[in-house]
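Newbie here. four chains, one complex. Structure please?
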Amino acid sequence: MIQIFVTGGTFDKEYDMITGTLFFKDTHLEKLLDRGHCRLDTNIKTLMLKDSLDMTPEDRKLILDSCIAAQTDKIVITHGTDTIVKTATLLAENIKDKTIVMTGAMIPIKFGSSDGFFNLGSSLAFAQTLSHGVYISMHGRYFNWNNVRKNKEKGIFEVVE
Amino acid sequence: MIQIFVTGGTFDKEYDMITGTLFFKDTHLEKLLDRGHCRLDTNIKTLMLKDSLDMTPEDRKLILDSCIAAQTDKIVITHGTDTIVKTATLLAENIKDKTIVMTGAMIPIKFGSSDGFFNLGSSLAFAQTLSHGVYISMHGRYFNWNNVRKNKEKGIFEVVE
Amino acid sequence: MIQIFVTGGTFDKEYDMITGTLFFKDTHLEKLLDRGHCRLDTNIKTLMLKDSLDMTPEDRKLILDSCIAAQTDKIVITHGTDTIVKTATLLAENIKDKTIVMTGAMIPIKFGSSDGFFNLGSSLAFAQTLSHGVYISMHGRYFNWNNVRKNKEKGIFEVVE
Amino acid sequence: MIQIFVTGGTFDKEYDMITGTLFFKDTHLEKLLDRGHCRLDTNIKTLMLKDSLDMTPEDRKLILDSCIAAQTDKIVITHGTDTIVKTATLLAENIKDKTIVMTGAMIPIKFGSSDGFFNLGSSLAFAQTLSHGVYISMHGRYFNWNNVRKNKEKGIFEVVE
């Protein structure tokens, strides 16, 4: 079984036509798994729906505790990209016996041009095949938690040399 | 480097507004990798654009020869789902030293509801992480070439018990 | 009030992933009006879901009778493009006191590249503003029923000179 | 000929993946006319790409001057919805001999769920059929410039009773 934890991020942002800004309503994960005709044994749990810049230490603690409590060693987490490495670090320092794949999207799933559906496919595959550890899955690749950073000028993840 | 071979299948079918039928024009693979902000080192080569029910022994021979000649041990092949297992069998019987991930789509990529983009993400991930062998990647899962079949009534791939 | 009659056509065709062919399941009209934030007083009635090449004289009689019975003089009909002019002719010969706008799509609405949503917007506007008569609404234009034909090589509607 | 003036608004907003905010890059009007298989004689001119809350008196003057100078009496203007009525008022007070249809979108065209393509279809139809005057075209309807307001709580346009 693969546990999917939803925490928000660009992935799940929607357009609020009253205010003209982006906001969270619900996760799109279930619909995406349907569209992918996904036939993995998955469980989706929404821990929070937050821009990762707004995450508090309590939020990260909740993610950590949820991963520890999960009854499987295969976990996928959707997360905002801005602080995804920070959360990955907390998880890696405290969990050694699970494969945790964190992913996000550069563009919200509700946009036609979103990368989120592709990233979800990659992340579920990595969760099934990578050895225990904490990984960031973006751009079709996986990165080890301790040698990746988001290059905010270019909007991409890259290996820290 | 990951070699991507395009052979057609539902994945790349388009709607022909003159005849009202589905046909092939070009592959969508390059656009999909762009949309996925893919940063893998990939090479895309279109071997053919065919419904897999129309594939001849010569077509399968071309796929086999192309895989053998590929200068990498990581290969993703897009292929129609109806005879994908047949081609997988030919590849598996002749190639032992490469990871070959075959994938397709239940619904054409040009439909809003296609699973193809998700499958592409999974397949690229599996190609990076699975040991040498030939696999079918569908529904977020991978199947070994020798214990999978397409259930044509349900439109799904399933393990042969 | 605008009466919308659904008869099928390319507009409402979907992809059947079991057979790999196009088929009809349900009309998409209601969802499209929602997406358009449409605030017209409309009533949608599905008369049939057919490729217009398969329409029988009885089918056309049903469309005619439904238009005659409609409790409004503003009617939009979605219809396959191949025989839309034939049905328009029957309606025009029998109904003089209503504005009937017939429309369709070159590409099914379920494809990302469909023209159907645009055509629906045009057709509802024409139904509100054109004088009594029977019209074909395609390509952002309206055509009088008696000087239009579908150019099947080009896949467009054009004025008969 | 129908002159289309682009001024920005929600219609043309895109997602900036670097900053996570909405911004303007280019208008989508030309692509939309292509997707609609539009066969009207149109000319598209981008006057500005602005959120209508940021429009200055000089911006509105430019729109007015452009409408006056247009060599046709059929004009469609895409415009942000927040101050569309204000610009409509300026145009109506100064132009009497043209049909000017102003429209926008509640949701950006780059979102799958945008109403913009529908509104564009309606607006082009209204521009061909309504008598001289200034109109707001939204929700499948048209409103006279002098009895419409945007209800900002509901995000809809409604008649001023």
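Moderator note: The mean pLDDT of chain D is 97. The radius of gyration of chain D is 15 Å. Thread marked as resolved.
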